[in-house]
Amino acid sequence: MSQHVVVYEYGIVRRTSEAAESIDSTQNTDVFVSDQTFDLLKQWAFVPHADAVIRFFLQKGKECLRFKNYTGILQTSDGTQFEILPKISKNDTVFTARQSLLKMLRSVTDLPFYRLSQAHLQQANQPLWEIFISAFIQEMEQIIQQGLERAYQTIETEQTFVRGKWLPHRQNALHPELLFTAHDEFNADILPNRLLKTCVLFLGKRSQYLPNQVRLRQLRFALEDVNTSMQVNADFAKLEKLDRRFNRYAQALKWAKVLLNQQSWATAGKDVNDSLLFPTERLFENYVARGAKRYLGDHEVSYQDDLHFLVDDHSGKRRFRLRPDLVIRKDQQTVVMDMKWKRIEPTLPNYGIEQTDLYQLYAYGRKYNADALFLIYPAHEDFRAPLPPFRFEEQLVLTVIPFDITAPLPAEIEKMENYLEMK
């Protein structure tokens, strides 16, 4: 049975074999794993792209691994599944952190997460993996209820009578009593259904949550007459040619592609699968931007605006394009906003704000001729109200405001709108 390990952003992974010796330096967010799992992660930590996700270091002579600001699911080839959750508030529980991650994942519109419902958020006492499985099952049950799509398939077989067309050139000389025939059969054994059944069978072996297991068995029975896909990646590539009849399959197939990726990486001989990891700051940006676009109805909202450059002319060309996270316009007024996934510390002299972020906001303000600037950080128990304003110039002021991802999104956007009106 696979091991499920919950760890927070910036949490440390240690060897279980060194637990007793590490007690003086251990924090309550640290996790302990077997030497085999640790060695797989350690080896992966030195792969070029992995340095954005995890860092190897020594602490009092003991090997440690620290996750960075990525969240989601990471799997090692020995069956250990790490669930990495966001961590801003000191009061966060696994339930609230998992809910926050699910809410932010719903802003990723090119993946099936945006269809996660409020009911799925209430399942946050279950591992992320099981919640994803539940979402796939829900899409599948809807397809089964509406009826599987079917198509005519050419069936070639040897039998004692002619059904359809006899193919004498395919006749088996060793068995002249058998006729090689081809006939068309209207059935559900078609490519999309094969991929969905492949996913159902795969998840049936991987789910450890009894309600999911029961529902997967029911789906397996409903797909009894459908074969599995033998070339998953190649078959997914063929899906672009599907006609509109299969539009209702879209979400289930998206889920199947995401979940079956957990199968294909292992057969490719890789030690670690990070395909379900996401940069938390990007998720936070998408979440706030999606809310602004949806609920600031009387404002023009531009995400990742790219109209301006830092340098207007260098050898006849503009250089260094600027990309503020949000530009909000209304009544000839322009407000520029940037989001940062970091804990603000009101007791520190500079609150933990990076000086480079202030340089960046100043450049945005000048180039966009902004009427106001905002830096948005996640709210927590010590950061519930805006910080005192940062005045760059008489007419250029930056306000640092909190955004509570545990609160309903419309309510937080309403607060943001109030800040805009107060500028």
From TrEMBL:
Which InterPro entries does the entry mention? Answer: McrC
Q: Which UniProt keywords apply?
A: Endonuclease, Hydrolase, Nuclease
Q: A single GO molecular function, which one?
A: endonuclease activity
Q: Which Pfam family would be a valid example here?
A: McrBC
**What is this protein called in UniProt?**
Restriction endonuclease
* Organism annotation: Runella aurantiaca
User: What are the top taxonomic ranks of the organism?
Assistant: Bacteria, Pseudomonadati, Bacteroidota, Cytophagia, Cytophagales
